[in-house]
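Note to self: keep these together.
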Amino acid sequence: MTAMTGHGGGLLEATARLRLLLIEDDPGDAFLFEDLLTETEPDVEIIVAGTLKEALAALTRDIQCVIVDLSLPDATGLDVLRQVLKAAPDTAVLVLTGLADAHVGVAAVGAGAQDYLVKQDVDGPLLSRAIRYAIERRRADESERQLVEARVLGQENARLERGLLPVPILNDATLGHHSRYRPGRDRALLGGDFYDTVQVGDGTIHGVIADVTGHGADEASLGVRLRMAWRTLVLAGHTGAPLLQTLDTVLCHERWSEEIFTTLCMWALSPDRRTLRVWRAGHPQPVLFDRDGVRALQDDDFGPALGLLPGIEWPYTDVPLGDDWALMFYTDGLIEGFAGDPTERLDLAGLLVLAEAAHARGDRGHTLIDGLIAEAERLNGDVLSDDLAVLLLSRGALR
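Structure:
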């Protein structure tokens, strides 16, 4: 039975008109409550259900408050409340009791109801205030729950980020070191991409950037383990193909499926900062900025991703550098978006076009990285859907 009609708007809309569900099997009491409420809330929609079965069928997302009598033909006591709360966990609930059953109302609040009303004491203003209060209290409870979840999620993300996004071990003030890490859209805040930079005793700077296949917590966890293994090996004096072979072994032991592999680019920057040695395992080519412009590092010697061919030896390429340069390492999330056409990917060629324009503008450091990401997203028509990591090392006039 519906006394008056209005527009439901959902619990969390403060200005919404009231839409209520009254669960009451006594037609006289139901009529009384409708009459009392419409005196103070003339623009209200009240749906009346005489049984729990009818009530559960009538519960929709736009019901803002449920007023429930705990004595129904098909259920009684707190069992009624529990079933209503289970069916509508985000909806405010008021419980009706008699004079002799006030203790039941207290128990109902303890079980999850926002408040209780003694039938014999109810008038129009009290009923209206109780409903409004219940809705606001439920809204406050929901806001508090979301804040707690956000706080817990933030703490967890911060903990994971400390492992995934390490502070570089870098003691050369002549170098610029800038990075960006961002997970894919609609995913956990961390993915399987990782990077690291470590300067060792002789002044050589070792670096890595890599991408574990897949997205989510498992891939992030594996990425953290591989990064920690890589840093440990570098600090222990290992480098080059032997390091990659050991990292490949770690991956094969730690992964949960033989289908999991990792693309990787590793490098060693000489102490005089004029030569770069690069090992590439199925990973996109780094981009070099210098006085002559922008180009991809041409390394014809490279190997497959880690985890595909155990026992392989990865070759390296030596790249001469001048006094002024910037090197950009990145994962494929940066170049897999569309290039302004839903049939064409940005890829390396498109990235080089964007990089040349940024280089001509004089972009440096974070301005360069953020600008390239923004342009890639503009061409894609949306945020980039894959995890991405970008690391920029620079020296001299390009720092």
